[in-house]
Amino acid sequence: MIDISNWFSEHWGLTEHAQYKILYSLLSVVIIIILRRLTIKIFLKNNEDVKERYYYTNAIKYTYSAILIIILITIWFSEFRSIATFLGLVGAALTIALKDPIVNLAAWLFILARQPFKIGDRVQIGEHQGDVIDIRLFQFTINEIGNWVDADQSTGRIIHIPNGIVFNQSQANYSQGFSHIWNELNITITFESDWKLAKAILTKTLEFHTSDMSESARKSLKEVSKKYMILYGKLTPIVYTTVKDSGVCLYMRYLVDPKRRRTSENLIWEDVLKAFNEEDTISFAYPTQRIMVDANNSSSND
Fold first, then answer.
1. Is CATH 3.30.750.24 what the domain over 181-277 is classified as, yes or no?
2. Is 200 within 8 Å of 294 (Cβ atoms)?
3. Among 1, 138, 147, 250, which residue has the least CB neighbours within 10 Å?
4. What three-state secondary structure class fits 49?
5. Strand-pair partners of 63
6. CA distances to 24, 31, 245, 280, 287 from 192, in Å
7. Are 163 and 116 in contact (CB under 8 A)?
8. What is the CATH number of domain 117-173?
9. What are the distances in angstroms from CA 125 to CA 7, 96, 144?
10. Taking the domains of the chain in order of start, what are their residue ranges?
11. Longest Cα pair distance anywhere in the chain, in angstroms?
12. How confident is the prediction along the chain (302 residues), in pLDDT tens digits per residue?
């Protein structure tokens, strides 16, 4: 029978002591993987909540990964003279070879501690915007919105972004703190139209579609004011009036849930179009050109 230990010593140059360490390391990895899968299965057995399943799964994975690292360090630590030597060697190697992963890992800790965004938040970071659907050690993932699609609707693309981007790019969070955003729609009517009637119709339409939203925003603002210096004197919808070259422009400003922006616009515009269609004194304006012809000059030229 072949002596496996001697074979490894002769062909691989591994001492018996090193062979034991490798064996213990492999057994540790296998045991940790089995325990991790069993733990996840137990915790998620009767839990159907998607968010809780996600958080439990990741928490268990990170916990067992940390335990495995500690076990491996314990097994191999005797090969180093001191912990300072070990940490120095590892630190130097990681700094040189793994600069970006280290930055991403540090950013992951920052995201967990400071929480500039969390799972479910709608964010814009650099040129990317979307709903955060996953946060991992080295990258986070968003379900993209906007881009070639109007009104913040989903494009269907998944974008993976390195965590380190939070250190050098500003982050806009649609959902954090004050959970609503201000949206504006504008409409231009002719100078001959009854702009007062049009404004009254727009105001009534906004109030009908945003009454519940204003109350919800008021409660949200009360909570967020404890953390941020956010002050709004008016949370109810309002219609502003201004004059443009082609007519009277009316701006509808109202609060909306970031994820219901397009739905709200659709409902408001449909009601506005129906109401304006019933009024003979209101007409939409659009860019026009007038050409003036001097009949006298035209005749003399002939």
1. no
2. no
3. 1
4. coil
5. none
6. 88, 81, 13, 11, 15
7. no
8. 2.30.30.60
9. 56, 28, 11
10. 4-97, 117-173, 181-277
11. 122
12. 346 556 556 555 556 666 677 788 888 889 988 988 888 888 777 777 776 677 778 778 888 888 888 888 777 765 555 555 656 655 665 566 557 777 888 899 999 888 899 888 999 998 899 999 999 888 999 999 888 777 678 888 999 999 999 998 888 888 776 677 889 999 999 999 999 999 999 999 998 988 776 666 666 666 666 566 666 667 788 999 999 888 999 999 998 888 888 888 999 999 999 999 999 999 998 776 667 666 666 544 54
Q: Which of 278, 260, 268, 279 is CA-nearest to residue 203?
A: 268
What interhelical angle do 50-76 and 16-44 show, nearest 10? 170
Record the tokens describing residue 300, joined without a space: 């003399």
In degrees and rounded to multiples of 5, residue 167 shows phi and psi of -85, -20
Which amino acid, 164? G
Q: How far is CA 173 from CA 55, 131, 205, 241, 257, in A?
A: 21, 10, 28, 30, 13
Q: What is the pTM of this model?
A: 0.57
One-letter amino acid at 46 equals N
